[in-house]
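Hey, I'm writing a tutorial for new members on how sequence and structure tokens pair up, and I'd like a real worked example in the thread rather than a made-up one. If someone can provide the structure for the chain below, I'll link this post from the tutorial.
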Amino acid sequence: MSDSKTRYWIAVACADHARRGKREGFMQVCHGKGAPLRRLQAGDGVVYYSPTTAMGKPDRLQAFTTIGRVKDARTYQADMGNGFEPFRRNVAYHDASEAPIAPLLGLLALTHAKRNWAYQYRFGLVEITEEDFAVIAHAMSVPQTLS
């Protein structure tokens, strides 16, 4: 989607999971699958969209919760116990405000004039344009030089 080497992504997870990733400096998607993460390159921009606050709780948060840049090329597994070893990528997260998606729906190419805009998020990782990333970064109060 992007003309430059840098690509931009929306990852989908509940806000609790996205916030934990920010605190610990990692991202994971699609219940820990590795293949989607291997599509990302060092320097790519990633923003988390959180449909809910906590997994399994339908509170309709519908907000962008964290934003950052992929730090390096390494995809690795982490042991979370009970046999769960999700794949992760290291991310340098920005200090940012969470931003509801509703005011941005008409501004983003990804959602503009799409009645079922959230349908594409079911894949857990969606490539977006550099322009959409910039709109989201602005809404999250991330300085343009960092986005």
